[in-house]
Write a sequence for this structure.
């Protein structure tokens, strides 16, 4: 059985007769190195601290002892942070033996089951679990109770430019905005990001912007060139008509035409009358 299955299928703490809860010094407890969550909601931590102050800690944290004789959190970092706010010197904990790989996988799974990671944190957790547990995408999805398309869409977010990923993490744009940008290369994504944020573009407007970036409006340019070409022909024809009319009325002159790719020239030569006769 994989560490994934051991965690998911394990019995609640209250139902396991072999588990012993111990009081551990808060100063000897450290966060999990593989914690996927980078942003903790301070308001929620404060609310949790108030709840613990009023009702006590209803569920102990789970830790493992590392090589430095410290206790690394496997599950319960939010509870640990709330306890720190209360300035408690000790915290109820369950000590278990896990390898580094097991510790990392469990930290990821515990956070994924809470379902309050931001989209980028969630995507990174999926990617790490795939690698650690050597799972195919469909198997990972099944174990998490998600559809394969859901997991696939999250993992695709990791192909975005770092700046775009950060914007999603910060809530400046949504993951749907991010998916729209996936059709562009990294430089194009970075170039459009400020415009999307500053103008507060909708997902539809972002999709339209991406489409314009991928397919510039060639048709309009073609029309402009065609119009210019037609105007040139019109001008030349008008000149020819004017020359014919002048010749018909007895005007004496010669003319020469020079037609190149860049321009059309008509040189008209009129001889002056002899003023000394």
């Amino acid at each position: 059985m994989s560490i994934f299955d051991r965690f998911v299928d394990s019995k609640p703490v209250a139902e396991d007769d072999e588990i012993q809860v111990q009081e551990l010094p808060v100063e000897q407890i450290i966060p999990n190195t593989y914690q996927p969550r980078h942003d903790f909601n301070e308001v929620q931590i404060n609310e949790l601290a108030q709840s613990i102050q009023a009702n006590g800690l209803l569920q102990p944290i789970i830790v493992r002892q590392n090589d430095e004789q410290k206790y690394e959190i496997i599950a319960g970092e939010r509870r640990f942070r709330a306890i720190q706010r209360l300035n408690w010197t000790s915290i109820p904990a369950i000590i278990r033996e896990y390898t580094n790989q097991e510790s990392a996988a469990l930290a990821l799974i515990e956070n994924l089951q809470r379902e309050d990671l931001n989209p980028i944190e969630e995507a990174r957790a999926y990617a790490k679990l795939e690698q650690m547990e050597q799972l195919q995408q469909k198997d990972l999805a099944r174990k998490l109770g998600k559809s394969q398309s859901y997991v696939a869409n999250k993992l695709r977010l990791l192909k975005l430019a770092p700046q775009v990923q950060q914007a999603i993490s910060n809530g400046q744009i949504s993951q749907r905005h991010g998916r729209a940008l996936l059709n562009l290369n990294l430089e194009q994504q970075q170039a459009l990001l400020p415009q999307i944020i500053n103008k507060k573009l909708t997902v539809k407007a972002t999709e339209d912007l991406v489409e314009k970036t991928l397919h510039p409006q060639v048709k309009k340019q073609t029309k402009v060139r065609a119009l210019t070409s037609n105007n040139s022909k019109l001008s030349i024809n008008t000149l020819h008509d004017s020359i014919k009319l002048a010749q018909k009325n007895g005007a004496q002159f010669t003319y020469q035409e020079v037609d190149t790719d860049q321009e059309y020239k008509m040189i008209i030569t009129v001889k002056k009358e002899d003023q000394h006769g």
